[in-house]
């Protein structure tokens, strides 16, 4: 895992355009957030599903970098004063606190467009073929757009100060968090040329760990501390957001996360290869403390 994370970090760093004095501010904004660390859940899933389905890490890496760029752009924008107005992210000042709001917006926009440039690059095409790159680009656009992550974000904003029903909360998280996790698993499948049965299993795994991931996030916002998380806690309550904790309570949330983790592990049974990494990964996400 540590070796893989190091390769991901190197690939992300190398994907940022070379220094250009005339646009240095936006390049520094991009680099600041993209290399700020994090769990790298999405790129790890891309690489592992590619491996499980008979593909290679080298071929899947452009797709892994692309999805992490989209995730990072979303965090930059999520932290803006017009959104969650957060001052800290991953233990560091948020992008707009360092570079200003305008540069943060543009840095996020630049990462979003760089994601597609990376997934559709000549290198990616040489490793995967143009058809797979086209499928990957379409999947990224769908999962990141209005019917995916952006749709979940607007539901989140419009739910502030309201008592959202559990069904609306599930929809929001399926889009806001789950869409990119689904994309990550399927990007690995696309790179490896997986069959429909494998893709369906990857989607099931993604749906389970995606929901579990968000429930744990809600729990940590109540039970953790700022030093551990690297960002403010209690923001959900402060913004009057309905969460799984506020609707179900902590004990029910823990039980639900355990059930989802077990379902995620069962979904891997269709694969003939070694699924121990993905099984352990689901448990790691279940047990995380930050």
Descriptive tags:
290 residues, two-stranded antiparallel ribbon, Farnesyl Diphosphate Synthase, 73% helix, globular, mainly alpha
Query: What is the gyration radius calculated from CA atoms?
Result: 18 Å
Mean pLDDT: 93
Main pleated-sheet profile = 2 strands, antiparallel
CATH topology: Farnesyl Diphosphate Synthase
Poorly predicted tracts of residues: none
CATH class: Mainly Alpha
How much helical structure, as a percent, in the residues? over 70%
Query: How many beta-strand elements?
Result: 2
Strand content: under 5%
Strand order, largest beta sheet: 1-2
Provide a descriptive summary of the structure in words:
A two-stranded antiparallel sheet has the order 1-2. The protein is built from 17 helices and two strands. It is mostly helical and 290 residues long. 44% of the residues are buried. The chain has helices spanning 2-15, 24-34, 41-52, 57-78, 95-99, 101-119, 122-128, 130-144, 149-158, 166-176, 178-192, 196-223, 226-229, 235-238, 244-248, 250-267, 276-287, and strands at 88-89, 92-93. The protein has one domain: Farnesyl Diphosphate Synthase (Orthogonal Bundle). Helix 3 (41-52) packs antiparallel against helix 4, helix 11 runs antiparallel to helix 12 (196-223) and helix 16 (250-267) runs antiparallel to helix 17.
């Amino acid at each position: 895992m540590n070796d893989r994370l190091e390769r991901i970090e190197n690939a992300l760093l190398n994907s940022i355009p070379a220094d250009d004095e005339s646009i240095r501010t936006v390049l520094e904004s991009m680099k600041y957030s993209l290399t700020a660390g994090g769990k790298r859940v999405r790129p790890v899933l891309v690489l592992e599903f590619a491996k499980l389905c008979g593909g290679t890490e080298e071929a899947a890496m452009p797709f892994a970098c692309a999805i992490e760029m989209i995730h990072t752009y979303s965090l930059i924008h999520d932290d803006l004063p017009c959104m969650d107005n957060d001052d800290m992210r991953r233990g560091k000042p948020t992008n707009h606190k360092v570079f200003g709001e305008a540069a943060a917006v543009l840095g996020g926009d630049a990462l979003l467009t760089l994601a597609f440039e990376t997934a559709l690059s000549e290198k990616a095409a040489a490793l995967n073929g143009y058809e797979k790159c086209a499928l990957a680009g379409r999947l990224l656009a769908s999962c990141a757009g209005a019917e995916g992550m952006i749709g979940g974000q607007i539901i989140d904003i419009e739910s502030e100060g309201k008592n959202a029903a559990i069904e609306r909360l599930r929809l929001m998280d399926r889009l806001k968090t789950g869409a990119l996790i689904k994309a990550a698993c399927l990007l690995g499948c696309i790179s490896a040329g997986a069959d429909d049965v494998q893709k369906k299993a990857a989607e099931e795994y993604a749906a389970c760990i995606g929901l579990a991931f968000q429930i744990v996030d809600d729990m940590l916002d109540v039970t953790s501390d700022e030093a551990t998380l690297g960002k403010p806690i209690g923001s959900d309550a402060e913004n009057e957001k309905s969460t799984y904790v506020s609707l179900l309570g902590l004990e029910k949330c823990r039980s639900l996360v355990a059930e989802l983790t077990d379902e995620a592990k069962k979904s891997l049974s269709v694969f003939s290869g070694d699924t121990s990494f993905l099984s352990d990964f689901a448990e790691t996400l279940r047990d995380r403390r930050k």
